[in-house]
Amino acid sequence: MELNSRKEGDAVVVSVKGRVDALTAPDFEKYLSEQADKSEKSLVVNMKELYYISSAGLRAVLGATKKLKEKRGDMMLAEVQETVREVFEIAGFNKFLKIFDTEKSALEQI
Amino acid sequence: MELNSRKEGDAVVVSVKGRVDALTAPDFEKYLSEQADKSEKSLVVNMKELYYISSAGLRAVLGATKKLKEKRGDMMLAEVQETVREVFEIAGFNKFLKIFDTEKSALEQI
Amino acid sequence: MFSQITLPATLGNLRQFLDFITTCAEKQGFCPKRVSQIELAAEEVLVNIFSYAYSEPGGEVSVTCGSDSARLLIRFEDSGIPFDPLSKEPPDVTADVSERGIGGLGIFLAGKFMDEIHYRREKDRNILTLAAAPKAESEVSL
Amino acid sequence: MFSQITLPATLGNLRQFLDFITTCAEKQGFCPKRVSQIELAAEEVLVNIFSYAYSEPGGEVSVTCGSDSARLLIRFEDSGIPFDPLSKEPPDVTADVSERGIGGLGIFLAGKFMDEIHYRREKDRNILTLAAAPKAESEVSL
Ligand SMILES: Nc1ncnc2c1ncn2[C@@H]1O[C@H](COP(=O)(O)OP(=O)(O)O)[C@@H](O)[C@H]1O
Ligand SMILES: Nc1ncnc2c1ncn2[C@@H]1O[C@H](COP(=O)(O)OP(=O)(O)O)[C@@H](O)[C@H]1O
Q: Least CB-packed of A92, B69, D48, D82 within 10 Å?
C-alpha cells in the first residue's frame, strides 16, 4: 500500500494505491486520521489505483468520516474501481460518503 | 416384465420379473387383481427378480391390497431387492404390507 | 456439456426418454443404485407431463441433461472458542454515519460475496466452509 | 483434489493464507473479479479467527481448498398448463391401506430420490429441474 497527500484549498487530497487489508489498514487508518486533522474541512481520497479493500479498510474510512463530520467536513471518494466500489455499496457506505467519477468533480463540490 | 403364478393352499404366489414402470404397470395391475380374485385369502408376490418399480407399480400393489382386505386376506411380498424395498418404505407401504425374506417364511405365516 | 432430446409427450416415448437420462447419469459416474433412483424420479415427472400437461394430443417434452460446474470450497478449521458466525445479527447497512458502530461488517461482507457459508462445531473445532459457484454459460441451469 | 495449509493463527500469516486460497480459486478458473471477492470473504474469516478464536497465543488455523463434484442436472420443459409440483401437499405416508387414495405418490418419490427439485414457469413453459449430487469421498465437505 502506498499513501500520498496534498493540500487543495480547504481540502486535503489523499491517494491510496495497492491493497488495504487487515495488514495495511492500521497504517491507512492512522494516515487518514492525520489528514482529516490537517484538512480545513473535507477529505478527498483518490482510489484510482486501489485494487482491494476489506472490512478493516472500511473501518478506517468510517473513523475518518466521523472525525470530519465533527468539523462539518465530508469524506469524498474519487475514481473508485468497480470491485472496491461494490464493497462500499454492500456495506451501505454510499449513504454518507460522496463518490465522484473524477478528483476534479470532487474538488468542485467543496 | 414377466408374470407367473401358482396356487399354494389358500394362497396364490405371483412372481414378477424385470421392471414395473408406467408402461408395464397396467398389465401388472390387471394380473394382480385377477390373482387376488382367485386367491382364497392372501397373495404372496415374489420380487426376487424385480429390479425397478415406480409409483405406477405402487398403485397396482395398493389396489390389490385393498381388494384382499375385503376378504380379510393380506398382501405379502417376498425376497424384495434393496432398491425396490426402499421405494415401498419411502411410500410408507411397509405399514400395511408384510415383507418377508423368503417365499417360504411368507407361506408359513398364512 | 449437455445433451437434449425433444419428443411428443406420450407414454410410448417413456423408454426413449429414460434411456437418454440413464445414459447421461451413467456417463457422469453415478453407481447403478443411484442411476435407478434418478430414473425413477425422471419417470414420475415424465408420466405426469404425459398425463396432465396437455389437454389435446400433439404436445412435446424437452429433456436436457448435463452437469453444472463444481463449486470452489474453502474450509477453515480452528480449535478456538465455539463461534457460529451465522448466529450474528447482520449489521444495519442503512444507518447513517453517526449511528454506525466501528466493526461488525466482516462476516456480513463474506456472506455477500460467497454463494454459501456453512458452520459446524465438530469435537473441539470450529469448521466454517465458504462455497463459490462459477457462473458458467455452457451448463444446464436450474 | 484438494490442498491444505496449516499455520499459526496470527495476522503475520494472512498473506500466506490468502495466496494459497487465491491460487486455488484461479486454478479453478474463476475470473479476477470473483477471485478478489473470494479473497475478501476469506480474509474476513481469517482475521476473525486471528482476533477472537484463541485467548492465548499458539493456536492454529487449517485451510482446505478444493472443489466438490459437479451435479447431474436434468431439465424437463413442456408448454402444457402451468403446474408447480412443489406446491402439492405431500401425501400422508403414515396412513393405513383403507385411508390411502390411489395415486399422489409420484412427485413425492421424485423428491425423495433427488437432492433438489426446482420449478419455474418461463413464458408459456413449465421448467422443472432435478439435481443429483454424487457423494464422492475425495472432496471437501461442507
Ligand atoms: N472466530 C471468532 N471467535 C469468536 N468470536 C468471533 C469470531 N469471529 C467473530 N467474532 C465476533 O463477532 C463479531 C463480528 O465480527 P465481524 O462481522 O467480522 O466484525 P468485526 O470483526 O469487524 O467486529 C466480532 O466483533 C467478534 O465479537
Ligand atoms: N404436469 C402436470 N400438469 C398438471 N397437473 C399435474 C402435473 N403433474 C401432476 N399433476 C397433478 O398432481 C397430482 C399428483 O401427481 P403425482 O404425485 O405424480 O401422483 P399421481 O400422478 O399418481 O396422481 C396429479 O394427480 C395431477 O392432478
A: D82
CATH class name, domain D3-141: alpha beta
Q: Does C35 touch chain D (CB under 8 A)?
A: no
- Domains defined for chain B, CATH in brackets: 2-108 (3.30.750.24)
Per-residue pLDDT of chain D (142 residues; tens, 9 = 90+): 688 999 999 999 999 999 999 999 998 888 899 899 999 999 999 999 999 999 988 899 999 998 877 788 889 999 999 999 889 889 999 999 989 988 889 999 999 999 889 999 999 999 999 988 776 555 677 7
**Distance in angstroms (rounded) separating the CA atoms of residues C132 and A91:** 20
Concatenated DSSP letters for chain B? -EEEEEEETTEEEEEEEEEESTTTHHHHHHHHHHHHHH-SS-EEEE-TTEEEE-HHHHHHHHHHHHHHHHTT--EEEES--HHHHHHHHHTTGGGTSEEESSHHHHHHT-
Residues forming beta bridges with residue C7, ordered by sequence position: C61
**Which of D83, D112, D117, D120 should be mutated for ligand 2, with most atoms under 8 A from CB?**
D83
Return the residue in D30, D33, D40, D46 with the most chain A beta carbons within 10 A, the one to mutate for interface testing.
D40
Domain segments of chain D: what residues? 3-141
